[in-house]
């Protein structure tokens, strides 16, 4: 049972990261393996500027880290347990009901 503000804040950071489909895709890529921004931008079909903004959000949330690698910067999950958490969360949500869509809480109200 969550009672500490830090627990709630940690889950809110994770939720913020997962609230955007591009950030979800980045996290799933990082779950597979660390990588470089240029490779992610190409794989996801987005501009490097847009990717950079999403990576900054994920860094600010404490979910990814930037690791200097010569002249490049490699990104990876901040902790291997995040990869397990992503897999567990995805499996649990799909196991409950995989045909549901969540409406936008600000425009339609939430289920």
From TrEMBL:
Q: Which residues form a coiled coil?
A: none
A Gene Ontology biological process noted in the UniProt record is: response to lead ion
A GO MF term:
DNA-binding transcription factor activity
Kindly give the Gene3D superfamilies that the UniProt entry links to this protein: Winged helix-like DNA-binding domain superfamily/Winged helix DNA-binding domain (1.10.10.10)
Q: Which residues form the HTH arsR-type domain?
A: 4-100
What the entry lists under InterPro entries is as follows: ArsR-like_HTH, HTH_ArsR_DNA-bd_dom, HTH_Metal-responsive_Reg, WH-like_DNA-bd_sf, WH_DNA-bd_sf
Keywords attached to this Swiss-Prot or TrEMBL record, sorted alphabetically, are: Cadmium, DNA-binding, Metal-binding, Transcription, Transcription regulation
Matching SMART domains: HTH_ARSR
Oligomer status and interactors? Homodimer.
Question: What is the documented function of this protein?
Answer: Metal-responsive transcriptional repressor for the cmt operon. Binding of cadmium or lead causes the repressor to dissociate from the DNA.
Which NCBIfam families has this protein been placed in?
A: HTH_metalloreg
Q: What is this protein called?
A: HTH-type transcriptional regulator CmtR
Can you name the source organism?
A: Streptomyces antibioticus
